[in-house]
Structure formats: C-alpha cells, structure tokens
Amino acid sequence: MRKYTWLIGLFALLAWACGDNDDDFKPFGGERNWLVVEDSDDPIDAQRYRIFRNTGVPVYYNDTIGSEMRYTLATGEPYTYYEVLQVFYSPGSVTPGKLQANYTLVRDRDKVKPVLDFLETDALPRVPESVYVPSILLVDSLKTPSGDTIAYKGLNTIVLSKVKDFDKVDQKLYRGVFLATLVANTLAISDGEWLEDYFYAITYRVNPGNKSKMYSTGTTSIGTYVYSAYSGLTVPAAEQTLGGLGFVGTYTKPTGTSERMWQVPSKSQDVRQYCIEIFASTEAEFTAKHGQYPVVMEKYEVMKRKLETYGFTFE
Q: Which residues contact 208 (CB under 8 A, 6 or more apart)?
C-alpha cells in the first residue's frame, strides 16, 4: 500500500510541476532543432536565411547559434544554456588539444558577404541532395590535426576558413576543398573495398612487388611509416615521380627539388587530393596539368565516375 501511495504522490508532484502548460515539461533541448536560420531585416542574415530556405543548409559566422533558459534537475535553479557547434568533438574518440585544433571567429562581419555569395551561386548548387550538409561555420582561420587550413568536417558543421582573406583565395581551389570535405572521408571509409580493387590498385600496378611502400601508412602503434617516391621501387629513376606513381599530391608539403624524395600520400590523402582536383577543375584543366601521366589520368576517370554515383555532376 505504501508503494502505491508513494507513486500517487509522485504523479501528483509531476502534474503540479507541469502546470497547465504542456511546454513546461519538455526535455531540455530534446525537441528543438537548433540548426535553423530565421528571416531578418539585416542584409547578411537575410541572405543566410535565403540560402537556408533554398538549400536547407544553415550558414553561421558564430559558433554559438542559440540559447534558452533551463533549470537544474537538482534544485530547479534557472540558468542560460548556449548551443555551440561541435567542431572538434567526436563521440568515441579523443578530442584534440587546442594547440593542434583551433579556429578564430570572424572579426569583420562585412567580410562574410563574399563568402555567402560564393556558397549561394557556386558551391552549394553543386551539392547533390544525397549529400547531407548539417551546417556551415565561417571562420577567419583554421588549424586542424590533419593540417587542413581551409575546410574541416566537424560533428555537426563544416568549417570554412579564410573569410578575412577571401578576396585573395583561389575560388576554384576553395570550392574543391569544400566539396571534397563533404564526401572524401565518407568515401574512404564506406567504399574501402571498392577503392582497393579499382583505385589504389592502379597505383599498385606500377610496382606490384612493393605494394606495402606505395602509400604512406600514417601513424601506427610503433610510429609513422612515410615513404618517398623512390622507396622500394625497381622502375627507372626517371619514372620515380609522384605523377608516375599515380599521385596528385604528397604526404606533407614538398621540400627540395628532387621529386624522388617527396613523400607519397596516405590512402585517405590520395582520395581527398583527387576529389579536390576533380571538384576544382574542368577535365581540360586537369588534363593540361596531369595529362603526361597515364596512371594519374586512369585514376582520375575512375574517381570521377565514383563521385557521379554520389550524385555529383561535371561539365
């Protein structure tokens, strides 16, 4: 009997706490979608709203995107909750330190408009409906563990940097990096088997007896295995070039003039580098730059067709 009396008392307490307004008993933030943009009379925010209305993609220039009054469960004391975009946090993985991963927010709001124009007229119209863009955060500068300084895919946002210097950036490259950031990591993880059979295999064929040294393998439990273009190759020295091996980029920024000494990329870098170049250039431009390397051109055609299966279209 005491148990039922206790339950009745509990339900009565809950009913009193709810009051006449059902909204008083909603979970804190549990039913609210923060990733929205409201209409505004302000020109910058009105353009952000238009982009959101037409594409479903909210664009922000501040990582704090909203707030609401909440109450502590223990005492019922009110406090203000702030919703902040999660850039470097990822469930189940270690969050990098601020020295390795950080960004600076936009200081000059007037610099935002040229980037919004670029997104509205150039970049976002190229994103197929099958590719989800949760939000975009515009910042002045960006530092990431992977070394990317233009774009980074966070938990619930895509960070785009260089706002303060946008008038100086190569917009084709900027577009390529943005679009590659949306899809390259998913492609490398979800289509790993396909990549092994149809993309990486093209590079393996250059020197099949040394497949283990055709790609840098990144950080392992005992260190980092990074190889140069000449590592373990039996092909003539004149052919020991990144292009000859089928690469359009390096593991780290090249140093020196001998391409044989430049470091070959990891597999994920190879995928991202091809995606960037494909999104940033026309076929004619890519051919003019890499046409002398048959292995590169073969990988280009394979990757381009794969991106088309994701819904991307090319001129």
A: none
User: From CA 155, how far away is CA 157, in angstroms rounded?
Assistant: 6
pLDDT digits (tens, 9 = 90+) for 237-261: 556 788 988 999 988 877 666 666 6
Lowest mean pLDDT among 32-41, 126-135, 226-235: 226-235
First to last CA, the chain: 76
Q: How far apart are CA 10 and CA 17, in angstroms?
A: 11
Residue 62, pLDDT > 60, answer yes
d(Cα 163, Cα 106) in Å, to the nearest integer? 7
Tell how strand 223-225 and strand 218-220 pair up: antiparallel
Question: Which pTM value belongs to this model?
Answer: 0.85
Residue 10 phi, psi (nearest 5): -65, -45
| Other beta carbons less than 10 A from residue 160's beta carbon | 24
Residue 119, SS3 per DSSP: helix
- Residue 168 structure tokens: 């100086």
In angstroms, rounded to a whole number, what is the distance separating the alpha carbons of residues 246 and 264? 10
- According to the model, what pLDDT value does residue 225 have? 65
Mean pLDDT (the chain) is 86
> What was the pLDDT predicted at 13?
43
Weakest-pLDDT range from 22-31, 93-102, 255-264: 22-31
Contact residues for 65 (Cβ-Cβ < 8 A; gap 6+):
34, 35, 58, 83, 84, 85, 135
What lies within 8 Å, CB to CB, of 95 at 6+ separation is 88, 89, 101
Separation CA 248–CA 233 (nearest Å): 18
Secondary-structure breakdown of the chain: helix, strand, coil percentages, each rounded to the nearest 5: 45, 15, 40
Helix (H) or strand (E) run with residue 289 in it: helix 283-290
**Which three-class secondary structure state does DSSP give residue 224?**
strand
Q: Which residues have a Cβ under 8 Å from the Cβ of 48 and sit 6 or more positions away? A: 37, 40, 58, 59, 60, 116
Query: Cα separations (Å) of 164 from 17, 108, 140, 181?
Result: 49, 7, 5, 20
Place of tokens 């009193």: 16
Quote the tokens at residue 176: 């390529």
